[in-house]
Amino acid sequence: MKNVEITTLPNGIRIISEHIPYVKSFSLGFWFNVGSVDESKSNNGISHFLEHMFFKGTKKRSAKKISDDIESLGGYLNAFTSKEHTCFYGRGLTKHLPKTFEVLSDMIQNPLFRDKDIEKEANVVIDELYDIEDTPEELIFDKFETVIYNKSTLALPIIGTEKNLKSFTSQNLFDFIQKKYSNNKLFIVASGNIEHEILLKLTHKFILKDFGKSPKRKSHKSIDGSKYNFIEKDIQQIHTIIGTKTIGFDNNQRNAVNILSHILGEGSSARLFQSLRERNGIAYHVNTFLNSFFDVSTFGVYLSTNEKMIKKAYDIIAKEFEKIKTKKVPEKELNRAKEYLKGSILMGLESTTNRMIRMGQSMIYFDRVKPVEESINEINKVDQNVIQELANEILQEKNFSKVVIGQEIYRSNNFK
To answer: CATH assignment of 228-415, given 3.40.50.300, 3.30.830.10, 3.40.50.720, 3.40.50.10860?
Structure first.
Protein backbone atom coordinates (compact mmCIF):
# COMPACT_ATOMS: atom_id res chain seq x y z
CA MET A 1 0.00 0.00 0.00
CA LYS A 2 1.19 3.51 -0.80
CA ASN A 3 2.39 5.81 1.99
CA VAL A 4 2.87 2.86 4.37
CA GLU A 5 5.90 2.74 6.66
CA ILE A 6 6.93 -0.10 8.98
CA THR A 7 9.47 0.06 11.78
CA THR A 8 10.53 -2.85 13.97
CA LEU A 9 12.02 -1.67 17.26
CA PRO A 10 14.96 -3.51 18.84
CA ASN A 11 12.58 -4.96 21.45
CA GLY A 12 10.36 -6.52 18.73
CA ILE A 13 7.42 -4.09 18.75
CA ARG A 14 6.30 -3.18 15.24
CA ILE A 15 4.95 0.24 14.30
CA ILE A 16 2.96 0.52 11.07
CA SER A 17 1.52 3.72 9.69
CA GLU A 18 -0.29 4.86 6.58
CA HIS A 19 -0.28 8.57 5.77
CA ILE A 20 -3.51 9.83 4.17
CA PRO A 21 -3.09 13.59 3.65
CA TYR A 22 -6.63 14.36 2.52
CA VAL A 23 -8.39 13.39 5.79
CA LYS A 24 -8.43 15.27 9.08
CA SER A 25 -8.52 12.26 11.38
CA PHE A 26 -6.79 9.00 12.29
CA SER A 27 -7.50 5.50 13.51
CA LEU A 28 -4.97 4.00 15.92
CA GLY A 29 -4.89 0.37 17.00
CA PHE A 30 -2.78 -1.50 19.54
CA TRP A 31 -2.85 -5.11 18.34
CA PHE A 32 -1.76 -8.12 20.36
CA ASN A 33 -1.46 -11.40 18.45
CA VAL A 34 -3.27 -13.10 21.33
CA GLY A 35 -6.77 -14.57 21.44
CA SER A 36 -8.83 -17.51 22.61
CA VAL A 37 -6.63 -19.89 20.61
CA ASP A 38 -3.92 -19.15 23.19
CA GLU A 39 -6.11 -20.30 26.08
CA SER A 40 -6.93 -23.63 27.69
CA LYS A 41 -10.24 -25.07 28.88
CA SER A 42 -9.47 -23.89 32.41
CA ASN A 43 -8.98 -20.23 31.44
CA ASN A 44 -11.11 -20.06 28.28
CA GLY A 45 -12.57 -16.58 27.90
CA ILE A 46 -9.71 -14.73 29.59
CA SER A 47 -8.55 -12.89 26.44
CA HIS A 48 -12.02 -11.43 25.88
CA PHE A 49 -12.41 -10.72 29.59
CA LEU A 50 -9.09 -8.85 29.58
CA GLU A 51 -10.36 -6.76 26.67
CA HIS A 52 -13.14 -5.59 29.00
CA MET A 53 -10.94 -5.18 32.06
CA PHE A 54 -8.35 -2.95 30.38
CA PHE A 55 -11.07 -0.27 30.23
CA LYS A 56 -11.82 -0.48 33.97
CA GLY A 57 -9.14 1.82 35.26
CA THR A 58 -5.40 2.35 35.56
CA LYS A 59 -3.10 3.75 38.22
CA LYS A 60 -3.83 7.29 36.98
CA ARG A 61 -7.29 6.99 35.37
CA SER A 62 -10.68 5.74 36.46
CA ALA A 63 -12.87 3.93 33.92
CA LYS A 64 -14.85 7.15 33.47
CA LYS A 65 -11.72 9.24 32.95
CA ILE A 66 -10.50 6.83 30.25
CA SER A 67 -13.69 7.57 28.33
CA ASP A 68 -13.82 11.27 29.17
CA ASP A 69 -10.24 11.93 28.06
CA ILE A 70 -11.09 10.76 24.54
CA GLU A 71 -14.78 11.57 24.15
CA SER A 72 -14.24 15.15 25.36
CA LEU A 73 -12.01 15.57 22.29
CA GLY A 74 -14.63 14.22 19.89
CA GLY A 75 -13.03 10.79 19.57
CA TYR A 76 -13.86 7.32 20.78
CA LEU A 77 -12.25 4.13 22.06
CA ASN A 78 -13.22 0.54 21.43
CA ALA A 79 -11.78 -2.97 21.30
CA PHE A 80 -12.46 -6.45 19.95
CA THR A 81 -11.20 -9.96 20.55
CA SER A 82 -11.00 -12.73 17.97
CA LYS A 83 -9.70 -16.26 18.25
CA GLU A 84 -6.25 -15.12 17.16
CA HIS A 85 -5.83 -11.48 18.17
CA THR A 86 -7.03 -8.62 20.36
CA CYS A 87 -7.19 -4.99 19.24
CA PHE A 88 -7.62 -1.84 21.32
CA TYR A 89 -8.27 1.16 19.11
CA GLY A 90 -9.22 4.80 19.04
CA ARG A 91 -10.31 7.35 16.49
CA GLY A 92 -10.04 11.12 16.58
CA LEU A 93 -8.89 14.31 14.92
CA THR A 94 -5.23 14.38 13.94
CA LYS A 95 -4.30 16.96 16.58
CA HIS A 96 -5.53 14.57 19.29
CA LEU A 97 -3.32 11.63 18.27
CA PRO A 98 -0.88 12.13 21.22
CA LYS A 99 -3.68 12.00 23.81
CA THR A 100 -5.29 8.93 22.23
CA PHE A 101 -1.91 7.20 22.08
CA GLU A 102 -1.18 8.06 25.69
CA VAL A 103 -4.56 6.79 26.95
CA LEU A 104 -4.29 3.49 25.06
CA SER A 105 -0.70 3.08 26.30
CA ASP A 106 -1.80 3.70 29.87
CA MET A 107 -4.61 1.14 29.56
CA ILE A 108 -2.44 -1.73 28.35
CA GLN A 109 0.51 -1.04 30.65
CA ASN A 110 -1.03 0.03 33.94
CA PRO A 111 -4.32 -1.81 34.53
CA LEU A 112 -5.51 -2.16 38.12
CA PHE A 113 -7.70 -5.27 37.85
CA ARG A 114 -9.40 -4.56 41.18
CA ASP A 115 -11.46 -7.38 42.66
CA LYS A 116 -14.67 -5.33 42.76
CA ASP A 117 -14.28 -4.42 39.06
CA ILE A 118 -13.57 -8.04 38.11
CA GLU A 119 -16.72 -9.21 39.89
CA LYS A 120 -18.93 -6.57 38.25
CA GLU A 121 -17.49 -7.05 34.77
CA ALA A 122 -17.79 -10.83 35.04
CA ASN A 123 -21.54 -10.34 35.47
CA VAL A 124 -21.61 -8.09 32.39
CA VAL A 125 -19.81 -10.66 30.25
CA ILE A 126 -22.02 -13.46 31.59
CA ASP A 127 -25.02 -11.43 30.41
CA GLU A 128 -23.32 -11.21 27.01
CA LEU A 129 -22.87 -14.99 27.12
CA TYR A 130 -26.57 -15.47 27.91
CA ASP A 131 -27.47 -13.23 24.94
CA ILE A 132 -25.50 -15.54 22.65
CA GLU A 133 -27.10 -18.62 24.22
CA ASP A 134 -30.53 -17.09 23.57
CA THR A 135 -29.71 -16.33 19.94
CA PRO A 136 -29.40 -19.60 17.99
CA GLU A 137 -28.24 -17.86 14.80
CA GLU A 138 -25.18 -16.65 16.77
CA LEU A 139 -24.71 -19.64 19.06
CA ILE A 140 -24.57 -22.15 16.23
CA PHE A 141 -21.36 -20.70 14.76
CA ASP A 142 -19.53 -21.16 18.07
CA LYS A 143 -20.92 -24.69 18.38
CA PHE A 144 -19.91 -25.57 14.84
CA GLU A 145 -16.28 -24.61 15.42
CA THR A 146 -16.35 -26.51 18.70
CA VAL A 147 -17.29 -29.57 16.66
CA ILE A 148 -14.80 -29.35 13.79
CA TYR A 149 -11.86 -28.20 15.93
CA ASN A 150 -12.68 -30.28 19.00
CA LYS A 151 -9.07 -31.42 19.52
CA SER A 152 -7.68 -27.89 19.18
CA THR A 153 -7.86 -24.63 21.10
CA LEU A 154 -9.60 -23.20 18.00
CA ALA A 155 -12.65 -25.01 19.38
CA LEU A 156 -12.76 -22.71 22.40
CA PRO A 157 -15.43 -19.97 22.17
CA ILE A 158 -14.09 -16.42 22.45
CA ILE A 159 -16.47 -15.47 25.25
CA GLY A 160 -15.54 -18.47 27.42
CA THR A 161 -17.72 -20.19 30.01
CA GLU A 162 -19.76 -18.95 32.95
CA LYS A 163 -17.72 -21.08 35.33
CA ASN A 164 -14.44 -19.55 34.16
CA LEU A 165 -15.80 -16.00 34.16
CA LYS A 166 -16.88 -16.37 37.77
CA SER A 167 -13.49 -17.74 38.79
CA PHE A 168 -11.06 -15.21 37.28
CA THR A 169 -8.89 -13.34 39.77
CA SER A 170 -6.58 -10.37 39.43
CA GLN A 171 -3.62 -12.75 39.59
CA ASN A 172 -5.07 -14.85 36.73
CA LEU A 173 -5.25 -11.75 34.54
CA PHE A 174 -1.74 -10.52 35.31
CA ASP A 175 -0.32 -14.03 34.85
CA PHE A 176 -1.94 -14.38 31.42
CA ILE A 177 -0.55 -11.00 30.33
CA GLN A 178 2.92 -11.94 31.52
CA LYS A 179 2.81 -15.27 29.69
CA LYS A 180 1.06 -14.32 26.42
CA TYR A 181 1.31 -10.55 25.85
CA SER A 182 4.79 -9.89 24.45
CA ASN A 183 6.73 -7.31 22.47
CA ASN A 184 6.99 -9.58 19.42
CA LYS A 185 3.19 -9.92 19.44
CA LEU A 186 2.47 -6.18 19.70
CA PHE A 187 1.65 -4.14 16.58
CA ILE A 188 0.94 -0.40 16.81
CA VAL A 189 -1.00 0.47 13.68
CA ALA A 190 -2.33 3.83 12.50
CA SER A 191 -4.04 5.12 9.39
CA GLY A 192 -4.97 8.71 8.60
CA ASN A 193 -3.41 12.15 8.53
CA ILE A 194 -0.48 11.15 10.72
CA GLU A 195 3.31 11.09 10.39
CA HIS A 196 5.32 7.91 10.98
CA GLU A 197 8.03 9.78 12.87
CA ILE A 198 5.47 11.17 15.32
CA LEU A 199 4.16 7.65 15.91
CA LEU A 200 7.72 6.47 16.66
CA LYS A 201 8.26 9.35 19.11
CA LEU A 202 4.99 8.58 20.88
CA THR A 203 5.97 4.92 21.16
CA HIS A 204 9.33 5.77 22.72
CA LYS A 205 7.68 8.24 25.08
CA PHE A 206 4.72 6.18 26.28
CA ILE A 207 5.49 2.46 25.81
CA LEU A 208 7.75 1.96 28.81
CA LYS A 209 6.83 -1.57 29.84
CA ASP A 210 8.89 -4.50 28.56
CA PHE A 211 6.39 -7.23 27.61
CA GLY A 212 9.21 -9.69 26.84
CA LYS A 213 8.99 -12.36 24.14
CA SER A 214 6.84 -15.44 23.60
CA PRO A 215 7.01 -18.36 21.13
CA LYS A 216 4.92 -18.79 17.99
CA ARG A 217 1.75 -20.84 18.01
CA LYS A 218 1.47 -24.44 16.92
CA SER A 219 -0.20 -25.28 13.61
CA HIS A 220 -3.85 -26.35 13.47
CA LYS A 221 -3.76 -27.86 9.98
CA SER A 222 -3.71 -31.48 11.10
CA ILE A 223 -6.49 -31.18 13.67
CA ASP A 224 -9.37 -33.59 13.09
CA GLY A 225 -12.77 -32.75 14.51
CA SER A 226 -15.99 -34.62 15.09
CA LYS A 227 -18.93 -34.93 12.73
CA TYR A 228 -22.22 -34.11 14.42
CA ASN A 229 -23.80 -32.31 17.34
CA PHE A 230 -27.41 -31.63 18.32
CA ILE A 231 -28.15 -28.78 20.75
CA GLU A 232 -31.53 -28.73 22.40
CA LYS A 233 -33.31 -25.37 22.47
CA ASP A 234 -36.98 -24.54 22.94
CA ILE A 235 -37.33 -22.73 19.61
CA GLN A 236 -39.70 -22.99 16.67
CA GLN A 237 -37.18 -23.38 13.85
CA ILE A 238 -34.36 -25.77 13.07
CA HIS A 239 -30.99 -24.01 12.78
CA THR A 240 -28.21 -25.92 11.10
CA ILE A 241 -24.70 -25.59 9.70
CA ILE A 242 -23.07 -28.03 7.29
CA GLY A 243 -19.43 -27.48 6.58
CA THR A 244 -15.78 -28.39 6.86
CA LYS A 245 -12.26 -27.02 7.22
CA THR A 246 -10.32 -25.55 4.34
CA ILE A 247 -7.24 -23.42 3.67
CA GLY A 248 -6.31 -20.40 5.79
CA PHE A 249 -4.63 -17.04 5.29
CA ASP A 250 -1.28 -18.73 4.71
CA ASN A 251 -2.51 -20.16 1.39
CA ASN A 252 -2.65 -17.89 -1.67
CA GLN A 253 -5.79 -19.68 -2.87
CA ARG A 254 -7.87 -18.28 -0.02
CA ASN A 255 -9.37 -15.57 -2.26
CA ALA A 256 -10.47 -18.29 -4.66
CA VAL A 257 -12.25 -20.10 -1.82
CA ASN A 258 -13.88 -16.79 -0.94
CA ILE A 259 -15.19 -16.54 -4.50
CA LEU A 260 -16.50 -20.11 -4.34
CA SER A 261 -18.32 -19.27 -1.10
CA HIS A 262 -19.83 -16.15 -2.64
CA ILE A 263 -21.10 -18.01 -5.71
CA LEU A 264 -22.75 -20.62 -3.54
CA GLY A 265 -24.35 -18.57 -0.84
CA GLU A 266 -23.39 -14.96 -0.23
CA GLY A 267 -25.99 -12.49 -1.44
CA SER A 268 -29.48 -12.80 -2.86
CA SER A 269 -28.22 -13.79 -6.31
CA ALA A 270 -26.22 -16.73 -4.92
CA ARG A 271 -27.12 -20.28 -5.91
CA LEU A 272 -28.30 -21.53 -2.53
CA PHE A 273 -30.38 -18.42 -1.87
CA GLN A 274 -32.05 -18.78 -5.23
CA SER A 275 -32.67 -22.53 -4.98
CA LEU A 276 -33.71 -22.72 -1.32
CA ARG A 277 -35.57 -19.47 -0.79
CA GLU A 278 -36.65 -18.10 -4.16
CA ARG A 279 -37.56 -21.32 -6.00
CA ASN A 280 -38.66 -23.51 -3.10
CA GLY A 281 -39.64 -21.08 -0.33
CA ILE A 282 -37.81 -23.17 2.26
CA ALA A 283 -35.63 -20.82 4.29
CA TYR A 284 -35.68 -17.16 5.24
CA HIS A 285 -32.02 -17.24 6.32
CA VAL A 286 -29.51 -19.12 4.17
CA ASN A 287 -25.90 -18.22 3.49
CA THR A 288 -22.42 -19.63 3.19
CA PHE A 289 -19.52 -18.28 5.24
CA LEU A 290 -15.73 -18.42 5.33
CA ASN A 291 -14.19 -17.76 8.75
CA SER A 292 -10.43 -17.69 8.28
CA PHE A 293 -7.50 -18.15 10.65
CA PHE A 294 -3.77 -18.25 9.96
CA ASP A 295 -3.50 -21.82 8.69
CA VAL A 296 -7.09 -23.03 8.41
CA SER A 297 -10.58 -21.69 7.63
CA THR A 298 -14.11 -22.72 8.51
CA PHE A 299 -16.35 -23.07 5.47
CA GLY A 300 -20.03 -23.81 5.86
CA VAL A 301 -23.66 -23.29 4.93
CA TYR A 302 -26.02 -21.89 7.56
CA LEU A 303 -29.80 -21.98 7.32
CA SER A 304 -32.90 -21.97 9.46
CA THR A 305 -36.18 -23.57 8.48
CA ASN A 306 -38.97 -25.69 9.92
CA GLU A 307 -38.64 -29.36 10.79
CA LYS A 308 -40.75 -30.49 7.82
CA MET A 309 -38.46 -28.82 5.30
CA ILE A 310 -35.03 -29.62 6.71
CA LYS A 311 -34.51 -32.88 4.76
CA LYS A 312 -35.47 -31.20 1.51
CA ALA A 313 -33.09 -28.35 2.31
CA TYR A 314 -30.22 -30.79 2.84
CA ASP A 315 -31.04 -32.49 -0.48
CA ILE A 316 -31.04 -29.17 -2.36
CA ILE A 317 -27.71 -28.18 -0.80
CA ALA A 318 -26.21 -31.53 -1.82
CA LYS A 319 -27.46 -31.05 -5.40
CA GLU A 320 -25.98 -27.55 -5.61
CA PHE A 321 -22.67 -28.86 -4.29
CA GLU A 322 -22.67 -31.62 -6.90
CA LYS A 323 -23.58 -29.18 -9.67
CA ILE A 324 -20.67 -26.83 -8.95
CA LYS A 325 -18.30 -29.81 -8.71
CA THR A 326 -19.29 -31.32 -12.05
CA LYS A 327 -20.05 -28.28 -14.19
CA LYS A 328 -17.90 -25.20 -14.62
CA VAL A 329 -19.26 -21.93 -13.29
CA PRO A 330 -20.37 -19.67 -16.17
CA GLU A 331 -17.97 -16.81 -16.84
CA LYS A 332 -20.67 -14.21 -16.16
CA GLU A 333 -21.44 -15.67 -12.72
CA LEU A 334 -17.75 -15.89 -11.86
CA ASN A 335 -17.14 -12.28 -12.88
CA ARG A 336 -20.10 -11.10 -10.81
CA ALA A 337 -18.61 -12.75 -7.71
CA LYS A 338 -15.20 -11.25 -8.43
CA GLU A 339 -16.62 -7.75 -8.81
CA TYR A 340 -18.51 -8.10 -5.55
CA LEU A 341 -15.37 -9.05 -3.63
CA LYS A 342 -13.26 -6.34 -5.25
CA GLY A 343 -15.96 -3.79 -4.52
CA SER A 344 -16.07 -4.82 -0.87
CA ILE A 345 -12.30 -4.40 -0.55
CA LEU A 346 -12.15 -1.05 -2.32
CA MET A 347 -15.18 0.49 -0.60
CA GLY A 348 -13.75 -0.59 2.75
CA LEU A 349 -10.74 1.61 2.06
CA GLU A 350 -12.92 4.71 2.45
CA SER A 351 -12.76 4.26 6.24
CA THR A 352 -9.53 4.89 8.15
CA THR A 353 -10.67 2.35 10.76
CA ASN A 354 -11.13 -0.32 8.10
CA ARG A 355 -7.72 0.54 6.67
CA MET A 356 -6.12 0.29 10.10
CA ILE A 357 -7.80 -3.09 10.72
CA ARG A 358 -6.73 -4.35 7.30
CA MET A 359 -3.11 -3.39 8.00
CA GLY A 360 -3.16 -4.94 11.47
CA GLN A 361 -4.53 -8.24 10.21
CA SER A 362 -2.12 -8.20 7.28
CA MET A 363 0.87 -7.82 9.60
CA ILE A 364 -0.35 -10.62 11.83
CA TYR A 365 -1.09 -13.05 9.00
CA PHE A 366 1.51 -12.11 6.37
CA ASP A 367 4.17 -10.26 8.37
CA ARG A 368 3.80 -7.39 5.90
CA VAL A 369 1.14 -4.98 4.69
CA LYS A 370 -0.31 -6.76 1.70
CA PRO A 371 -1.01 -4.26 -1.10
CA VAL A 372 -4.62 -3.91 -2.16
CA GLU A 373 -3.48 -4.35 -5.76
CA GLU A 374 -2.10 -7.78 -4.86
CA SER A 375 -5.45 -8.90 -3.46
CA ILE A 376 -7.25 -7.57 -6.53
CA ASN A 377 -4.81 -9.41 -8.82
CA GLU A 378 -5.34 -12.65 -6.90
CA ILE A 379 -9.09 -12.29 -7.40
CA ASN A 380 -8.69 -11.49 -11.10
CA LYS A 381 -6.56 -14.60 -11.69
CA VAL A 382 -9.23 -17.01 -10.43
CA ASP A 383 -10.74 -18.89 -13.36
CA GLN A 384 -13.44 -21.51 -13.88
CA ASN A 385 -11.00 -24.39 -13.54
CA VAL A 386 -9.75 -23.17 -10.16
CA ILE A 387 -13.31 -22.89 -8.82
CA GLN A 388 -14.16 -26.40 -10.00
CA GLU A 389 -10.96 -27.86 -8.52
CA LEU A 390 -11.59 -26.19 -5.16
CA ALA A 391 -15.23 -27.29 -5.18
CA ASN A 392 -14.15 -30.91 -5.66
CA GLU A 393 -11.54 -30.57 -2.93
CA ILE A 394 -13.73 -28.87 -0.32
CA LEU A 395 -17.27 -30.10 -1.00
CA GLN A 396 -16.74 -33.76 -0.18
CA GLU A 397 -19.55 -35.21 1.90
CA LYS A 398 -17.16 -37.47 3.83
CA ASN A 399 -15.46 -34.36 5.23
CA PHE A 400 -18.62 -32.54 6.31
CA SER A 401 -19.58 -31.87 9.90
CA LYS A 402 -23.06 -30.83 10.96
CA VAL A 403 -24.57 -28.96 13.89
CA VAL A 404 -28.31 -28.72 14.54
CA ILE A 405 -30.16 -26.57 17.09
CA GLY A 406 -33.80 -27.33 17.78
CA GLN A 407 -36.35 -28.82 20.13
CA GLU A 408 -35.60 -32.20 21.67
CA ILE A 409 -38.47 -33.81 19.77
CA TYR A 410 -36.58 -33.07 16.55
CA ARG A 411 -33.44 -34.96 17.64
CA SER A 412 -33.16 -37.69 15.05
CA ASN A 413 -30.66 -39.68 13.06
CA ASN A 414 -32.28 -38.15 10.00
CA PHE A 415 -30.27 -35.01 10.67
CA LYS A 416 -26.96 -36.84 10.44
So the answer is: 3.30.830.10
